[in-house]
Amino acid sequence: MKPLSALAVALLATLVSAPSSAAAPAVLTVFTGESEGPVPGAFLGVNHRYTFDGYGTWDPVNNRPVRDVLEKARSMGVRVLRWPGGTVANTTQWKGTIGADRRCQRDGRIEPGDAGNPADDVLSGRLPSYGLDEHLRLTAALGAQAQIMVPMAIGTAADAADLVEYLNTPAGDGINPNGGVDWAELRPADHRGPYDVTRWELGNENFHSSQRYWMSQNENEALEQYIRGGTRRINTERLGKLSTPDGSCGGSTADVPSDGSANQVFDLNYPTAQPDDFELRVGGEVWQRVEVLGGPQAQQYVLDEFRGTVTFGDGRRGMIPPRGQAVVASYTSTHKGYVQFRAAMREVDPDLEVCASWGKPAFVPKFEAMKGNGIPPGSVYDCLTTHPYTHFSGSHTADWDSEVESHDWHVLGALNERQKFVALRDAVRQHAAGNPHLAISEFGALWGPDGGGVYPEYTYSMTHALYMASQWADWLELGVPWVEGNDLSSDGMYTLLGRGRVYSAEAWAREAVRPMFDAGGARVRQTLVGNPQRSPNESEMCDGQGTPQDRCRLNYGKLTATATRAPDGTVHVMVVNRSPVAGDAIDTRIVLRGFTGNGSASVRTVAPERFTSANTRQNPNAVGMSESCRSVGSDAFNANVPAHSVTLFTLAPQGRPGCVGV
């Protein structure tokens, strides 16, 4: 456990002190016998990206997880870990991330284009040293579960089925459910058994215009293509190279001419390419597609339509494209949709949960309307993933005049995302057949003003930790079965482990509430009466260009809370004080119905000096966690909940040992 700062110890004393005001306390009543659904075991999940050695989480020299990362991820209770990531991973080909012969991967973050040229990838290719096998080793070391995002943009349904075979079928039994290569036999020698990955999603945010790739820039057409598949004619695409001339990875699919070297490999933007109408020109001349290259003057190439590569000869077998000449392809990009991907994957493993990732309300009625009109009448989806981000710039709430205004927009943003999630859930319940559920594979608060404006640390500050803790209470109440928020590691903002793998404020909040989720059990009903209200400064909140006037005048409750009952009868109560005002501790009476305790409570709290407090390499202890044991009544007690804090009370039932310190 990390050392406590003097500030944390002092704030702990505040938490357990007598009420500081004469105002009537807020009353949180926990009905411990009234279950409202299970506590998911895969709740404190994290999005994780494969690039840059998993952003410093993998040690490629020693071929193992970074020890410091393991210790910190265990402390914060990571139980499910997404791979290969989000936008950056939309164009990953998993077969090039395993074994010794790794292949360059496209960076999925592309620049939006027009309808004639939907995207032009100009970002460098990545060599995946943190590939699929490494991810599964990291999750195993953490005692966590892997959640796999299957890139649909340049993948095939057969590839996805092969991936299921690789991860979930037995090795050594001679059974090869998908035919061809027995992928289970290619698993690492130290893991012959299946990984039994159950949580899958198809694509990442393909509803965004910059993540459509081959799909139409018309959103309705793109949604239909996501569901049923489709084709797109790509005309005169000037090809680039993911591999650089020295054979390493670092190029892109942005166009480059021939360099006159032997065995050049060029890359398409949008595989899979239909071979029958594929046309390739070098310097304006049409060259011939062949299976095997001919003599030194043969203007020929070999097409791998699935990987999206065009390979030329060495001057003995196949002519070398003359130096400086452009390589231009015209082809039909052809793809399957969600329905075909799901069918191919579940044919290999019928127990899979295959989530559609078009997490917008329009998906639900469109899917139902297409049954018998583009997809088979009995088509279903197992689940739908969504990304309930608060996007400040996109919602016109990034005109921050002060740090306090930013903080208030965070809390109001969390409330807004909860409402949108409920609307999506209700649409699924109203329209969908087969009882699919909603899951969250990314969420958080991001894209404020450039550089953060007046609040540059906002994405790793206590404000962000309070935002995430508020959402954990929401997602638990709404019965979300698995949740992944933030990135595990990154070089910049929006991460649990930032530059130098510094433990963020949110990481501390996760560690504080982790016992609630580790214990499992059931969420129980609770009510909160007398919750003091926060009234943000309207003159600041409402003055931005395009600021939503119906939201900038809203108040919000300073407290939010949730409670669970573990299988052994232990009760956990999480209380979040979202007030940004220093010293704004809230007297709270916690009443436990249907429960008799042993007279003690274990208390974990994260309550830094200011809501803006953030850990950095220069000051890694601005935010920390304190722990204590205090005396309480058997069925009720008072707490003075500090400003801008996350607190977990753990109460054992009568007859069970109390915590140490009473």
UniProtKB/TrEMBL annotation:
Q: Which GO terms describe its biological process?
A: polysaccharide catabolic process
Q: Where is the signal peptide?
A: 1-22
**Region named Disordered:** 239-260, 529-549
Q: Which InterPro entries match?
A: ASD1_cat, GH, Glyco_hydro_b
The keyword Signal is annotated on this UniProt entry: yes
What are the residue boundaries of the Alpha-L-arabinofuranosidase 1 catalytic domain, all occurrences included? 74-213
- Give the keywords, sorted: Signal
- Keyword set includes Signal: yes
> What's the superkingdom here?
Bacteria
Q: Which PANTHER family match?
A: ALPHA-L-ARABINOFURANOSIDASE C, ALPHA-L-ARABINOFURANOSIDASE C-RELATED
Instruction: Kindly provide the name given to this protein in its UniProt entry.
Output: Alpha-L-arabinofuranosidase 1 catalytic domain-containing protein
